[in-house]
Amino acid sequence: MAKKKKTDDIIFDELKRRADDIKMTGFELSKIAADTGPRLGKELAKLGKQKLEDTLATARILSLSPKHNLELLEKLGKLKKSGIISQKEFDKKKKEILERI
Structure pTM? Predict the structure, then answer.
């Protein structure tokens, strides 16, 4: 019976040690989370704001009327004809405008 008691004590001590280790690990992880949480929250808010601004800018572009896009194409043609922009620049912008129509 004494041997059984000793074995139980060893098992109990080992379980207690493991529980203490787990508790310490949990404490350390919670400290890391508390330290990094506010910084990550600010970064996420900044990214969210930027995505919203990008989406609004895209919506503004897409909401331009077809008439406005045609006027842009005419102006673009005049810029190319007068030599202010190259054929390559003209083609690139023309493609962008036509994709919006």
Answer: 0.39
